[in-house]
Amino acid sequence: MDLKGKVAIVTGGSLGIGCSIALDLAANGADVAINYRKHADEANAVVAQMEKMGRRGLAVQADVASFADAQRMVDTVREKFGRLDILVNNAGINRDGVVWKLTEAQWDEVLDTNLKGYFNYIRAAALVFKEQGSGKIVNITSINGLRGKFGQSNYSAAKAGIVGLTKAVARELGKFSVNVNAVAPGLIETDMMRDAPQDVKDKALAEIVLGRLGAPEEVAHVVTFLCSDLARHVTGEVIKVDGGQYI
Ligand code: NDP
Questions:
Q1: Does residue 223 lie in a domain region?
Q2: Pocket residues: Cβ below 6 A from ligand 1
Q3: pLDDT tens digit string along 38-55?
Q4: Which whole-number Å values give the CA distances from 151 to 50, 71, 98, 102, 163, in the listed order?
Q5: Domain assignment present for 246
Q6: pLDDT digits (tens, 9 = 90+) for 78-98
Q7: Which of 19, 72, 92, 222 has a 20 to 30 A CA-CA distance from 62?
């Protein structure tokens, strides 16, 4: 896929799926800026890997839950790289608990990061994409936003919200030739999942018809496709990358 000359932002690019997406976009020719909240060394290592590929990379410490940080990040990228073509909203957290035990703080933290965080970046990028008459937005949701997960009412609500957000924004930006899609992974082996209880992983594994957990790169390849010209007539879609876990 040819993304030469394109400039991308990937939120939460220091680890896991976001790191794989950033590297895959770079491997296909894009210059990529990532943000992170805590893992500065990991984020800088991702940038170093992209630079080794001959691409420009940038790591910015920016909390996706902050509206002001999102605008600052988009401004910084346009200043340094001269343009913006692709936004991948990926940064996410989980703070699990059954609903009768969930605290207000757990609810707010997950909704602020996983849903408002996506709005913040779309809001900042939309004006740029609208004015230039092109752009790609890919939002990482989850199959748990499509079916609801026990112990994850906050996370499932945020991820379901991303689906509505994706479809509404696809309608709003379609006439400006901006594609807006979502990717819904099933269980993928990353830090987020490494600490999950073994019985949760075993249960997920039993559901996955391909018989194995997914790898971050397998999500990344689908995101890269959606960011490429090959997917130019695809918008408002939610594509599962789950080895058949949702079937
Ligand atoms: P990881 O925990 O491995 O990585 C999360 C990334 O998000 C890190 O780079 C982290 O950066 C960043 N991040 C978290 N909070 C913030 C914040 N407030 N501001 C900026 N960056 C932040 O998660 P995964 O890679 O597993 O998950 C990535 C996405 O995929 C999430 O949206 C998740 O919900 C979704 N997903 C994951 C699945 C899985 O099985 N792993 C399944 C379905 C969906 P840092 O730590 O440096 O702050």
A1: yes
A2: 11-18, 35-39, 63-65, 90-93, 113, 140, 142, 185, 187-188, 190-193
A3: 999 999 999 999 999 999
A4: 37, 33, 4, 9, 20
A5: no
A6: 999 999 999 999 999 999 999
A7: 222
